């Protein structure tokens, strides 16, 4: 009797652990990658939108770190992305440029900081590409080139 109950509890615990660990707890596939601009890692703060091409889906978003790496997020507290095809695009205004250096006279010193995304084709804000997301872990690098 005790061994049957023990086996049932162990099986339940293993099934619960597999469910939580298998999908990172969100129940959604994961998506990570690196964004490059002209072969170099994109700066921190480049925002990307992954929109399902099928009706009824919800988009996921990502933002690059200082090494150009990203991880898709389904919501503020849930990592992941829906399975299926997604249109990938940049989100305008996503990179904050640094403030100019101010001299002792209170005026900017040198030229104003350049927006690192300013030389990219405008089509990147409409669609870069369409990618397919499978169950489990997905990796996709995004290579952008200047005009």
Automatic annotation (TrEMBL):
User: So which domain of life are we looking at?
Assistant: Bacteria
Q: Which UniProt keywords apply?
A: Signal
Which segment of the chain is annotated as a signal peptide?
1-23
Keyword Signal listed: yes
Q: What is this protein called?
A: Carboxypeptidase regulatory-like domain-containing protein
Organism source for this protein? Answer: Blastopirellula marina
